[in-house]
Amino acid sequence: METTHANILTRPQTSRGIHACFLALLAALLIPVCALGAEASRRAVQAKHEVTSLTRTRWHVLGARPLGMFYYRDDAAGLESLEAHARAMTLLAPQCFRIDAEGFVHGQVPPAVLEIARRDKLPLMPLVVNPGFDRKIAHAMLRNPKAQQRVVMYLAYLAERDDYAGWQLDLEYIDPADQHLYTQFVRRVAARLHRDHRLVSVAVVPRFSDAYPDNRTAEFRTGEWGAPYDYRAIGRAVDFLTLMTYDHHGATSPPGPVAGYAWMKGALDYAVRRVPRSKILLGIPFYGREWVQTSKGTTSRTLAYKDVKPLVTNPGPRWDPRWRTTWFEVQQGNGKRTAWFDDSRSLREKLNLMRAYRLRGFAAWRLGVEDPGFWPMAERFEKEELAARKTHGSAKLAGSASCGATTGVTGKP
């Protein structure tokens, strides 16, 4: 009986113990679940914030009229120009990443550039290149699907890590036989980065016809540098492209403009029939070029605007009405020195060309070598554009109101 009584007395205590254990176990299970839920909620809020931020950046970039993209290479003059004019830019494109044959991406945006961009809320779209425009590197990467995918993964990771607005692909001197592979690669990059709400652009060399090689004059001929780019297919995949309308004349050519007006028009006439105008940035050169011709041959070098003034002698620079570019020529003993360069006057002609073709904007190569007069000229140009849009919008509204009144009276559309 005592044993039975003892058992009876202890049953409620045993039940309470089991209940307590159950509650403890339930708490042990629920607390991590709640913690996971809180962490998931935090991550969802963070992801929503990132998407919202990227969407705002996208609207800011694509809504700019004109969209002004500025290329940057890391040197003291470029950094000084960036520091002074960051607020006048829509987009900064530092050339500081490169791929290798296996698809690994190397490089980084210099810390000083990142600091300026973040301070002035300047979106970054770094370039990724095949170093030295090495055809073999581009060919090996494009021929290897795993290497292509590796590039795509790197670009997505780096953009998220450092908060880039997107990337510009600047692979050049690609084998024309690899055109389809390059187009496929562009599509893969665009599809992946667009999932993250990032922008993708491509730099393309000018073409003047679909044929390669073609029978046009040497000055307006599609060469092997332009042949790898399928404008239509690339234009459908990306947010915009830079038409690199510079090096019309280069180190191995006779003296002439870096970007002659008529030559640029020829390149644009081809491009706008294949790519929406709203997806084209007109490439403009901030640099010039000098040729020195002697009995031993011709040498050539690029010029920053600050290098031009010491070279100029009487009668001074001249204006070429066909190419709408400034140039000069001086005799030096038995030799001759010729330079063509873009100052604020010729750059204004190029912005006028951009406006005449109703393009998205322009892309300037590169900061630190420009005529300082470009910046006040560009500011005036932008104000003119804004005033013209306001006038056009007011006229459109007035026309709509007028049409509405007429329709009300006559019943005619």
Q: Please provide the ordered H/E string of secondary-structure elements.
A: HEHEEHEHHEHEHEHEEEHEEEHEH
Number of strands: 14
Characterize the main sheet: 8 strands, parallel, barrel
Instruction: Write down the Rg.
Output: 30 Å
> Approximately what portion of the residues adopt beta-strand conformation?
15-25%
The helix content is: 40-55%
Strand order of the largest sheet: 1-2-4-5-6-7-8-14
Dominant shape: globular
Q: How many distinct helices?
A: 11
**Terminus-to-terminus distance:** 107 Å
Mean pLDDT: 88
Secondary structural class: alpha/beta
Question: What are the segments in which pLDDT stays under 50 over at least 5 consecutive residues?
Answer: 1-13, 401-413
Summarize the structure.
By secondary structure, the chain is α/β, with parallel strands linked by helices. It has helices at 2-63, 76-85, 111-119, 135-142, 145-162, 179-195, 231-237, 261-271, 305-308, 344-356, 374-410; strands at 67-72, 91-99, 105-107, 127-129, 166-170, 199-204, 240-243, 280-285, 288-294, 297-303, 318-320, 325-332, 335-341, 361-365. It contains eleven helices and 14 strands.
